[in-house]
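Summary for the steering committee. One of the milestones for this cycle was to obtain a three-dimensional model of the protein with nicotinamide-adenine-dinucleotide bound, which we needed before selecting residues for the alanine scan. The sequence and ligand used are listed below.
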Amino acid sequence: MNTESDANNGGAENLDPIAISETQFDRAAAQVKGLKRGLVDFLKKPKRVNIVNFPVEMDDDSVQSFQGFRVVHNRVFGPGKGGIRYHPEVTMAEVVSLAKLMTWKCALVNVPFGGAKGGLVCDVKNLSERELRRITRRFTSELFDELGPHQDIPAPDLYTGEQTMAWIFDTFDKLHPGFNNRPVVTGKPIEMGGAYGRREATANGCLFATERFLSKGLLHGHNEVAGARVAIQGFGDVGGIAAHAFHRRGARIVAVSDSKGGIYAEDGLDPALVEEFKAGSGSVVGLADTMTITNDELLELDCDILLPAALGNQIHAGNADAIRARLVVEGANNPTTPAADRILQQRGIQILPDILVNAGGVTVSYYEWVQNQINEQWDYETTTEKMRVKINAATDAVIDRWQRFAVGEENSADDKPDLRTVALVIAIERVAHATLMRGIWP
Ligand code: NAD
């Protein structure tokens, strides 16, 4: 079944993550000249897939069985790299599609890693810290000969963070004594070799890519973030920190949300107050002087910039016609479906795609990995500035190529790929070229 034809036929949209990633890939591959058929097949498939099932003793003495996934999509540029998400609905298909996304992301920002991803089916909100520690240690031990500083390097993702990474490192280190194992995982706590600026990196990258885009005059009336009305879905490591970053640059944060709902304030929210309130109550919902809205309403707000920073498939065939933002900045992975991509493109709403916008995280993860090998720790400014340079270069590359496509320099003038397709074209070309340069073994 094909996502594109489903939407065009008015049928229910196919939200299977693999179908979505293949549609995105096919749109881009069609623009890459001379891509060999067999190479297309190779690049579409994951290199290595692991499914593990294991038991864990719970606090009440019961035993529960857990399922986890780790997928390496490609290692042409270096070891596999990608986050591990803990979520009750995470599936193998989702992890495969996210591992592919990591390959393109690393290639786009020129970070010498391949793409990988992990997932564990669990609901963090119903687990104690001790249970999470036991689950994480056992999951890591199940994968112990798959992970490694030059093999496959996990990082945080949905509902995992510094503490999870510290447990993964500790478990791996126990199983591989006598080596410098710090680079086996990134997103670690600072005192364990984490990078200054890693926690803020993805959100800062969202800001830098947006600023670069705006500076080129591509959003009429907004050459900078200051004064823009911004709505953010998700208030975690990406959305919450992005709210601070955009607010510091003078944006008006008109709405934010989390899994329990959203809040709106026409005059703008103070992210520090939202954070303090959420820390006390568990949600952004209920903050004084704000209007409670649903996550669906947040997505459809009249604003300049919509920053989805929570889950996938939030902007889809069913609501793309109702989106009123003028620019979508994809902090989350895969927040927009291929059918919605087409609808927004027809409506003249630009999307800055995930593989560009949220690549600040993996870029600073790369710097953490580098620092761990030489036992150094750079300061926040050094790391963040190095990341900004990479994000700006990638943003320029995407926009320059997109403008060439738009005037028909590389294609027929009526076939104008969107920014996502162009970003993927650049990434696929780089990976395909490197594969052929290395030579297909044996
Ligand atoms: P997080 O767990 O820190 O925060 C997730 C946020 O989303 C929370 O505020 C949560 O309440 C909210 N949320 C959950 N379900 C929701 C729902 N149904 N509706 C609205 N909000 C909901 O996760 P994160 O690290 O901020 O990651 C968010 C997204 O960004 C994910 O798609 C992730 O893959 C992507 N991403 C994260 C990083 C990173 O460095 N953390 C890097 C690249 C991409």
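Key point for the committee: The longest helix spans residues 380-406.
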